[in-house]
């Protein structure tokens, strides 16, 4: 059912690398539920390939749509691995840290129904991580004259509530003189045994039953957590030790883009997602050794500040549905990005991952971000790029604040480097009906679609592709130069065909990574197959600017010829949002433009032709603005740069914003935040109109 597993988590190099990581990012695929078992959803769709050391590739294969997505995580537990195993490998080390007075954090993150509650809380027969951990902590406390207390909280809509002793007032986050977080108003209840704990009333329910489990109300989503405090006496020094560990069950991740913006829970979802993004940024920043960690960006991260810091250790467990589910794909994509960006810092090897289009796009965005970070932080280090051991990156938050101030971006780069940036991500359109390339051509083509991700040196033997140093015969010189001589490792898989159709673009992503040593050219057994499996066979890049403009132009033409339609608007106004969303159809829309205008007034009642014209032009403007925004929210860098007022810097910045929020531009005023003046916005709009 599950894919092959290879390797073990015992590589010493890997261990050394992992020890530096403050937050491990792992996955857990939940077993099929009774209703799923035996159904069509039960077909093998998720596979895990583990590599020597601490990395695992999770591949989703949707047989119906032929879509394949693969994500690299620090590790992934398969369906048949139980919670005890996760406890031993991931949580026990944190508990041992707790015994020495260190804080720890266990976070369950994932889509709805992915097994978060089961993992953290468990059920009557199968204790979750909390219960297993508490058993060990209590045993330790009894042996070491220690005491244990617990708190339980809920973070909903940016308000924190005490679940053990509910009060009218919310819990406040304060910082003491030593900069430690104090949760004012959150009760701590002493616990001496598991049975004591089971008797606790968690907001009207018992821990063993439904604590940390949200009520079955799809409109309410919140983060919940249980903190266990341990105070003990160190036998050797006889000093007192105080540590705490937080078990967090995050609210379900929902991909807002996919669900549409018209839902009543949109504001709630947006808030929750923002807090999740911030959390993942923190994970990334911590693992990358950033100095500045943007805790204040959300209440969740502020609340977790003491548990997610340089002095503590944590594990983020991404719970995965075993069947294809867009929310799960998006959730694991984000988790994977956060650990891969961190990996680029920590380890100096490279691995190529070929995966579905979403992953490609997101990777390339991250990669762009990395370049920006490098540039913004220390110009002189650009030429050394990732080969430098120095930390040169900023957090996404910092980037957002900094990136538009990079007035000297162009000047701080040598001419070659300047050229290198845009060319690092190139597009190649495959001709219509072109026949599949032969093997050697295919190799060349493949070299253009590689996604490069940095991973642990220890896992190089298992790398799913051929690694090429500067002497690779297949390597195109152009590719090498695009990222500079010192920092580029060009990577190209063996075999695997890359066919594209008319609208498919192949994205070149060549990333500068500091690799200390060359990897062997041959992947381990079976990995070649894996390459095929995860190879990009589709790429859903956003349609080119010309296609988008053509769509608008056609729509406008339609308007001018279909006055009768305007006079009798279709009642199906809901189609408006659908058409204007993330994945616009590059073809001429089938629905007449007039009926797609949002809030379109009834023209019959307006009066004179002049009034009708005015009303229509308002609608047109609204539509055009929406198209512009949708375009800015989805276009790739080159397309963005095709717009007036958007150059390299601004395009990079926009991509960066999109990493943090799926839809950063919701109205025209948001464009001012990227430094566009009203005049520039108008010019951009006129450019679009000019094509008509
Ligand atoms: N390890 C497991 N063993 C057996 N069943 C599991 C396991 N993990 C999850 N499940 C089952 O999967 C389903 C979803 O699990 P769970 O309720 O924990 O997910 P969730 O992410 O907390 O969902 P929600 O967000 O809706 O609360 C449940 O029916 C649960 O019994």
From TrEMBL:
<dbReference type="GO" id="GO:0005524">
    <property type="term" value="F:ATP binding"/>
</dbReference>
<keyword id="KW-0547">Nucleotide-binding</keyword>
<dbReference type="InterPro" id="IPR010994">
    <property type="entry name" value="RuvA_2-like"/>
</dbReference>
<dbReference type="Pfam" id="PF12836">
    <property type="entry name" value="HHH_3"/>
</dbReference>
<dbReference type="InterPro" id="IPR001752">
    <property type="entry name" value="Kinesin_motor_dom"/>
</dbReference>
<dbReference type="InterPro" id="IPR036961">
    <property type="entry name" value="Kinesin_motor_dom_sf"/>
</dbReference>
<dbReference type="GO" id="GO:0051231">
    <property type="term" value="P:spindle elongation"/>
</dbReference>
<feature type="compositionally biased region" description="Polar residues">
    <location>
        <begin position="564"/>
        <end position="577"/>
    </location>
</feature>
<dbReference type="InterPro" id="IPR027417">
    <property type="entry name" value="P-loop_NTPase"/>
</dbReference>
<feature type="binding site">
    <location>
        <begin position="110"/>
        <end position="117"/>
    </location>
    <ligand>
        <name>ATP</name>
    </ligand>
</feature>
<protein>
    <submittedName>
        <fullName>Kinesin motor domain</fullName>
    </submittedName>
</protein>
<feature type="region of interest" description="Disordered">
    <location>
        <begin position="423"/>
        <end position="446"/>
    </location>
</feature>
<dbReference type="Pfam" id="PF00225">
    <property type="entry name" value="Kinesin"/>
</dbReference>
<dbReference type="GO" id="GO:0005875">
    <property type="term" value="C:microtubule associated complex"/>
</dbReference>
<dbReference type="InterPro" id="IPR027640">
    <property type="entry name" value="Kinesin-like_fam"/>
</dbReference>
<dbReference type="GO" id="GO:0007052">
    <property type="term" value="P:mitotic spindle organization"/>
</dbReference>
<comment type="similarity">
    <text>Belongs to the TRAFAC class myosin-kinesin ATPase superfamily. Kinesin family. KIN-10 subfamily.</text>
</comment>
<keyword id="KW-0493">Microtubule</keyword>
<dbReference type="GO" id="GO:0008017">
    <property type="term" value="F:microtubule binding"/>
</dbReference>
<dbReference type="GO" id="GO:0003777">
    <property type="term" value="F:microtubule motor activity"/>
</dbReference>
<feature type="domain" description="Kinesin motor">
    <location>
        <begin position="22"/>
        <end position="341"/>
    </location>
</feature>
<feature type="region of interest" description="Disordered">
    <location>
        <begin position="564"/>
        <end position="589"/>
    </location>
</feature>
<keyword id="KW-0505">Motor protein</keyword>
<dbReference type="GO" id="GO:0007018">
    <property type="term" value="P:microtubule-based movement"/>
</dbReference>
<dbReference type="GO" id="GO:0005874">
    <property type="term" value="C:microtubule"/>
</dbReference>
<keyword id="KW-0067">ATP-binding</keyword>
